[in-house]
Amino acid sequence: MDTTLINILCLVLLILGIAGTFLPVLPGLVLSLAGLLIYKFGTDADLSMLYIWIFVILTVASAVLNYVIPARTNKKYGGTKWGSIGSVVGTIAGMFIPIPLGFLIGMFAGVFIGELLHDSKDMDKALKSTKGAFIGFIYGTGFSFVIGVAMFLVVVLNMLDYI
C-alpha cells in the first residue's frame, strides 16, 4: 500500500480517536492507538518504540481511570461506597441502553440511586455525590483527550521530521 494512503489512514484514525474520547459511540484511544501502530509498523517511520510503549501504557491507564475517577470523586463529594459501586454498575449498564450518552446517564443514575439506597432521606447528599461523579467524568475525559492529542502530535511531528 502507498505510504501516503497509510499516512492518511493513520491521521483519520487519530482524529476519530480524539473525537472518541468524548463521543461514546467511538472507542476513543483504541482508535488513536491503532493509528499510531499502523503508522509505526505500516510505514518506514523511524518513530521510537518508547513512544509506542508510553502510549500503550497511557491508553490502558486511561481505560481503567475512566471507571475509577468518577467513583473516587463521588467519595470526595461526600458519597459513600454505595454511590461508588452505583457509578461503576450504572456506567456498565448504561453502555447497553440504546440511547445517546447511555453510559453517562447510567453512571449518574447509578450514583444517585446508590446513594438513595444507602440513605433514602438525604437527597442533597445524593445530588452532591452525583456532582462529584460528573466532575470525575470530566477529569477522565480530559485525560483521555490529552493522550489522544499527544498521539496525534507525535505522529504529525514525526511525519514532518521534527521528532
How is this fold's topology laid out?
Layout: H1 3-20, H2 29-42, H3 49-76, H4 81-94, H5 102-118, H6 123-159
Helix pairs in contact: 1-2, 1-6, 2-3, 2-6, 3-4, 3-6, 4-5, 5-6
Give an overview in words.
It is a single chain. The chain has 163 residues and is mainly α. The protein is elongated. It is built from 6 helices and no strands. It is 79% helix and 0% strand.
Q: Pairing-aware structural class of the strands and helices? A: mainly alpha
**Strand fraction:** under 5%
Main sheet attributes: strand count, strand direction, barrel closure: none
Through-space gap between termini: 24 Å
Determine Rg (CA atoms, Å).
19 Å
Which regions contain 5 or more consecutive residues with pLDDT less than 50?
none
Tally of separate helices = 6
Helical percent range? over 70%
The assembly state of the depicted protein chains is single chain
Tally the beta strands: 0
- Mean pLDDT score: 89
Q: Which outline best applies?
A: elongated
* Helix-strand sequence: HHHHHH
